[in-house]
Every structure is written in C-alpha cells, then in structure tokens.
Specification:
Layout lengths: L5 E6 L3 H12 L4 E7 L2 H11 L3 E4 L8 H10 L6 E5 L3 H13 L3 E4 L7 H17 L6 H5 L19 E6 L3 H11 L7 E5 L5 H12 L3 E4 L10 E4 L5 E6 L3 E6 L11 H11 L4 E5 L8 H9 L3 E5 L9 H7 L5 E3 L4 H11 L3
Parallel strand pairs: 1-2, 1-3, 3-4, 4-5, 6-7, 6-12, 7-9, 8-9, 12-13, 13-14
Antiparallel strand pairs: 10-11
C-alpha cells in the first residue's frame, strides 16, 4: 500500500524562491508540490482545486500580504497548516511573530547572505512534515485567562540559591511560551529557554514575551550571568550551554546541529545536568522529534526534577513522548497546569 504524499502549495512572489522551495521539497519522497502561486489572491483560487495539505507562505507580497491572507484563511475557519518562509529582518520578524499568533505552524528564514539554500533544504521538509502532523488545540481561552493563583507562594531565591529552570520547545512552542512565561510569578530562579527558532527571529520573540511577563525576558548573550528574575532565550542558530562560573553563566556555541537543530534542547539540558545537577528543573514542551529527551534523562539521573507537557495540550506530542519513553519524566502535565507544576517542582529541589 502506497502512503499518500503530503501535498504542498508554495506561495511566494519570487520565481527563484518558488523554484528553490519546489526543487527542494521534490527531493523528499513523502512530499509532492502540487502547485505554486505568486500571490495570495491566486492561491485563494487554487486551494479548492488542488486540495493542498500544507501551504508555504511569504509575508511580503504585492496585492495582498501574507499576514492578511493568513488572517482571512483563519477567519473562514480553515485549519490548513501554514509554514511561513520569509525574510526575517527586524520588520519581517515582527510580521512572522504576528503570523504565528494568527495560526501559522512554523517560521523559517529565507536564504540570504548569512544562510544558504542548503541550510533551508535541510530544515524545510522536516518542518513541512511537522506542520502536517500538528494539532491545533484551542489556546485562545488559555491565553485570555487571568494569571493562575498558586496553592502556596513560591519560595523566593535567597543568597547562594543554585536552582535553575530550563525549558525546551519546538513546533507550537512559541505560543506555549506566550501562555506559560507570563503565568509564572516574578522572582523565581533564573529561567533558560531553548525554542527551535531561526536566527534573527529569536530576538523578536524575546522582546514580545518581555512585554507580557512580570520579570525580564531577553535574548541570551555569551557570558551572561544568571540571576533570579531573569529569563534568557537562546538565539537562533546558537547552542546555549550553562557553565558554573561565579554562579551560573551562559555560553553560546555554533558547534554542529544536534537532531538537525541549533539551538538544541539536549545541549542545554546536558550542560545543566553537569553544572546544576540536583538543582535543575527541566520542562519539555510541544515539538516534533526527540530533541531534549536524552538531556532530560541526564538531569533526572543527576537528581533534578523533570516535567513534560501532556499529549492532550501538545501541538505535536513528539519531544515529550520521546522523554516519556525513556522514563525520563517525573510528571506529565497539560499546559494549563504547568505553572503550578513548576512551582511544585522548585519546592522539591534543594536551594
């Protein structure tokens, strides 16, 4: 029995980009490009005829921009998965972030002087498959909720507190973080986040989250000293490691990708297992693949506490499932219960 290929419609005003994406995807035996469109108005006509499973979408196009098209698509109750492939300049990153909030599954950077066609090719098929498999749990009510009230006030970090919160995520993770981080109280131990994300886009995500949280959120810089009330997001295209140096510091590396990812959750988790050991609290959110599972196992074996998002709230139950299958997860929790689970987990750790 032949498995049906994933049908893709490519929407971009550049003939070169359309050809590049098409040629790249046609190399994968599980994917078929069924059509191209040089603007969304043409795509609107083609979608009913071609019945694609996934759209790739540029943001900046004539006649109708990608964000307007995506919002129109969602207003018509379409759940057709969308992968944004756009120039992630400062303006482009803001548009891409709004596209995620409007219902896009993934954001990838167009090749430019800093990234090659080959770099896109290595990621594109993976993300098309992730978007195709993604569920769309309704998070609108979750995001609209008031902040949770906690069963007990969290123990505030004192002098010499060595506890550390580490969060990893991939597909669906930006929206999960948009709920989780603002739901956490100020003055927790330092928080480090690895979200699979393109270069240049991570700063836009960190800046947006910083506006929503009661503590500082920003993109990590090499050598940053960790402190309570600070959350650092790994920059796109850099691995983030934790090292013991006058407390904890961040190291950023461009060593080879792990699980085809840079940043990799496993790199952060394994370094935290070595640096923080039983003082580490690891959280693994939605995402395709297995990145983070082995690192979470290392934190658990070092005496830390481990949490994974439960299948019912995941966009893709891939990374959490891989950790569960390794018996590396102490508790599996739906996203709306994760803030309390983090507070409870911190209370289990020795300060």
């Amino acid at each position: 029995m032949t498995t049906r290929k994933i049908r893709v419609l490519v929407i971009d005003d550049s003939a070169l980009v359309r050809k590049t994406i098409t040629d790249t995807l046609q190399l994968d035996p599980e994917i078929e490009v069924v059509g191209v469109a040089n603007d969304p108005l043409i795509a609107i006509d083609k979608i009913p005829k071609l019945q694609p499973d996934v759209l790739t979408l540029d943001m900046e196009m004539p006649r109708m921009d990608g964000l307007t098209f995506l919002r129109q698509l969602r207003s018509e109750q379409s759940t057709l998965p969308v992968v944004v492939i756009s120039s992630l300049t400062q303006q482009g990153s803001q548009l891409a972030l709004e596209a995620l909030e409007a219902g896009a599954q993934e954001v990838l950077a167009k090749p430019d002087g800093h990234s090659s066609i080959g770099a896109l090719a290595s990621k594109l098929a993976f993300h098309i498959k992730a978007a195709h498999r993604a569920r769309r749990p309704d998070r609108s009510r979750l995001l609209a909720r008031q902040k949770p009230t906690f069963a007990a006030q969290p123990q505030q970090p004192g002098p010499g507190d060595r506890r550390l919160i580490l969060i990893g995520a991939s597909t669906g993770g930006v929206e999960a973080l948009r709920y989780l981080l603002p739901a956490l109280p100020a003055q927790l131990p330092p928080i480090l986040v690895v979200q699979h994300i393109p270069a240049y886009f991570s700063k836009a995500v960190a800046d947006r989250l910083n506006l929503l949280t009661p503590y500082e959120v920003r993109e990590a810089c090499d050598g940053d000293l960790l402190r309570p009330g600070l959350c650092l997001i790994a920059p796109g295209d850099f691995h983030l490691m934790v090292v013991k140096e006058n407390g904890y510091r961040v190291r950023l590396l461009q060593t080879p990708p792990v699980h085809h990812c840079r940043p990799s959750v496993d790199v952060m988790f394994r370094s935290a297992a070595a640096a923080a050991g039983s003082h580490a609290l690891a959280v693994l959110l939605t995402g395709m693949g297995s990145d983070g599972a082995v690192g979470m196992q290392a934190i658990q074996r070092a005496g830390g506490h481990t949490l994974a998002e439960a299948e019912e709230s995941c966009v893709i139950y891939g990374m959490p499932r891989a950790a569960v299958e390794l018996n590396a997860v102490d508790r599996s929790i739906p996203l709306d219960g994760m803030p309390q689970a983090i507070i409870d987990g911190l209370s289990r750790l020795q300060a």
